[in-house]
Amino acid sequence: MIFVFGMSTKEKELDFTQTIICPSCGAYGRLEAFMTYSYFSLFFIPIFKWNKKYYARSTCCGSIYAIDDELGRDIERGIKTKIEEDELRPIHTGYRQGYCSNCRLPLEPEFQYCPRCGSKV
């Protein structure tokens, strides 16, 4: 008799979006929630999950924030509809560009002046 089993990790998008001013880059964007987990499968069918962790991703710069497990479970169930800024713990900030303080144009790090409005960076 042959058994096919395995362990793996997976990322699942949760049904949650929130419009925000990004704490990392200051741009207008959205937070999208997702969870990661490990699972055991038997004959390619997931049997049980463990190590669930919940995160939020900013769409403007790709920054990833960890959120509490309780908050993540509430979002997964559809109970929680808003994440406060103090509930976000930065994991990875994808913010690589600066923004012009005058016109909010994304700027490359080597720019000394904004190409749109001409203000000094």
Number of domains: 1
**Secondary-structure element string:** EEEEHEEE
Q: First CA to last CA: what distance? A: 69 Å
Gross morphology is elongated
Are there runs of 5+ residues with pLDDT below 50, and where? none
State which percent range the strand residues make up.
over 45%
Rg result: 19 Å
Mean pLDDT: 87
Number of helices: 1
Major sheet details = 5 strands, antiparallel
Strand pairing plus helix content: what structural class? mainly beta
In which range does the helix fraction lie?
under 10%
Task: Give me the count of strands.
Answer: 7
| Largest sheet, spatial ordering of strands | 1-2-3-4-5
Task: Describe this entry's structure for a reader.
This protein is mostly beta strands and 121 residues long. It has one domain. It has 1 helix and 7 strands; from the N terminus they run E-E-E-E-H-E-E-E. Strands 1-2-3-4-5 form a 5-stranded antiparallel beta sheet, with helices on one face. The chain is elongated.
